[in-house]
Design goal:
Helix content: over 70%
Largest sheet: none
Radius of gyration: 45 Å
Distance between the termini: 130 Å
């Protein structure tokens, strides 16, 4: 009888160990599946990040191009306006004398020792 009980106990221990090992294998498989899912999620996130970065860089490039064009157009406009004003000043008689008088007055004020001058 003792041998029968020992076999039963040994069998029960073996079955318990088998269940523990099976549960461990299942847990390991689940851990590996989680790790694979994590990698897939990270890869998707990296792809999405890259797409967002590409879109953002494209948009920034468009804004920069537009700003450069607008700035260049404004510079051309200012140069044109300036040229028109200079042409007007150069042809107006007496402007040289006015500028000379204004320069002399400015020089006098800058070099004067009288602070109220």
């Amino acid at each position: 009888m003792a041998a029968g009980r020992t076999d039963d106990r040994t069998g029960s221990v073996r079955e318990a160990m088998d269940r523990v090992l099976a549960a461990e294998r299942e847990a390991q498989e689940q851990i590996e599946a989680c790790a694979q899912e994590k990698e897939a999620i990270l890869a998707d996130a990296r792809d999405r990040e890259q797409r967002i970065r590409d879109i953002t860089e494209t948009r920034i490039g468009r804004v920069n191009t537009s700003a450069q064009r607008a700035t260049a157009a404004r510079v051309r406009e200012l140069r044109r306006e300036s040229a028109e004003q200079l042409a007007h000043i150069d042809h107006e008689p007496g402007n040289t004398a006015i500028i000379a008088r204004a320069s002399a007055e400015l020089a006098r004020r800058l070099t004067s020792r009288d602070p109220g001058d």
